[in-house]
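Researcher: I'm comparing several assemblies side by side, and this is the next one on my list. It has 429 residues spread over two chains. Same procedure as the others: predict the full complex and return the structure.
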Amino acid sequence: MDGVHDMGGMHGFGPVVEPGGEFAYHESWEPRVFAINVLVGVERVGGGPGGRVVREEMEPARYLAASYYERWLYSAEQRLLRKGTIGPGEVEAMMRRLEAGEPVPVHHDPAMAERVLTELRTVHPADAPPPDARFARGQRVRVKRMHPAGHTRCPRYVRGAAGVIEAVRGADRLPDRAVYGEKVDPEPVYCVAFGSRELWGPSEEPAWTVALDLWESYLEPA
Amino acid sequence: MTDGHDHHHPRPASAVELRARALEALLAERGLVSGEAIDAVVELYERDIGPQNGAKVVARAWLDEAYRQRLLGDPGAAIAEFGFGGAEGDNMVVVANTPAIHNMIVCTLCSCYPWPLLGLPPIWYKSPPYRARAVSEPRAVLREFGLELGEEVEIRVWDSSAEVRYLVLPMRPPGTDGWDGDQLAAIVTRDCMIGTAVPVAQEPSAG
């Protein structure tokens, strides 16, 4: 999806370093929203594609206006709604109840804490190396021109650019289809290195390299 | 951007905070998410998992050449020697700085980050300016962090666009001869492992 989340190279956002920016969050509700997102996944109460995909679907002006964890709150709610775990208007109804001073409902389940900690600490095997990679290290490739309406991990700023295979990473399912539940076979993922001139043209800065991990479907021989 | 200067002063909750509280309350009322589970996740990344993990790995790599080779060759296994690993850390790649190459990591599409080694990312890492500019004007970004690199140094920016998560292995600074692992780890900051800073030898302050 060519949305505003795909930010590589955009202008006008201002400075990176700002007071307070070194913290992971400022307000105590923010890590709780992060935790709820994790739990929506671990407890399988959310529907549709994952939180990242849902956040990308936010209307662009709203995405940019929202704080980081506000987007995560949006994705948690959306996933719960899509599964039917909660119904439309139920969050608003609870807001009114809390504002009216009703006691805050609590739920105790220490075993759930154990489950989520186990899940977060579980080491899964790294992606297996692909058996039949089309491209080899050192080979020149070009990123296809495309304009996908759905989720993709191929940022706009590399499309049409030529680079060199830096490494063959592993085999993984193409997210453009897999996140929507399509059954697709794993395909090779490559680390591709691009020269800065190829991506951005002339710059006042000495040339640099940008490397990304790209699925084979995004690439063609250069 | 939220106000970060009012931790100790009661103030009316924002609309988004009310909404977050309401969602948590709704899930509790349905018996779907427990308070203990939320607390556990929050505490895990506030207390147990953070840049102190990555710093231990870096310090070991500085002290032990065989470990450094394992870390670069099979990062998952080398990191697991410390017991570190889990969500957002299953496909690790460690990129080593040298006198000729300086590495930095970014996620232009969202906020991908090696949680088991660095915890949750800082606000600047997941904000539009860094996501936009790290790939298109890295030296200008590094200058904001106070890092000026010589023109002869090649900057390599790693955009975490797939499942690989990156960690920068910085160079051990001069002036640290004879330091032990704890002393070395103390100067390996989070930003050094993202690549927006480099370690500087400072005697750890007493206490």
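Model: For your comparison table: Residues 15-47 of chain B form one domain.
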